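(Deposited chain)
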Amino acid sequence: MATKVAVVGSTGRMGGLVTRLLAESEDFDVHARIGRHDPIDRVEGADVVIDVSVPASSPEVVNAVLDRGIPIVVGTSGWTADRIAPIERRLAADANLTAFFIPNFSLGSVLATRFAELAAPHFGSIEIVEAHHAGKTDSPSGTAIRTAELIGAARADLGPVAAPHADQRARGQQVASVPVHSLRMAGIAARQEVIFGGTGETVRIIHETLSDESYEPGILLSLREATIRTGLIVGLGPLLGL
């Protein structure tokens, strides 16, 4: 029997991709397509929900889905560690609930973030430059936020990176002490570069999305795993054994 999936944010770019992907899959059925003006109770009866809406509405969506005891995969940007914390506490109090927060469904992006995490303790100067299409409404991207948070955690015993004063706004927004620079431009899909500076050398870890097809394996993996796991998952890394 196919898994029934409700797609929240179905009218957006990612929502369209998810809907098409599910329609082509033998393992999943589209249970409901939910747009901005549709009632959230249309998720009822779904086996799993995927939220690819917008940052402003995503927290309401997540809590409404968890209220109904349905697993949810969140692909919406803007979920920092601080914003996830209340959901984490909620899941800790109810072992039957499931919420996955996936900043980027691209396998290559997840690996690039992992490489950056491994490099972080070895360099004192680290900055992130991320670029997305002009229609992306939030910045920094969820991927950049997650990368910076993991870099900060990897350097917890070493202290913050060498960064300019926070009041130097042109030097990027600091996330976990890492300056993040965001570009929103025509002609770009998605690109992230993590730059490490050391004595006499630099290291650059770059991931670039050339097609939305790169998200498809991660979307399907997340939906499958959300139906058999409980608890909180942040990023594709744990699903890939990273």
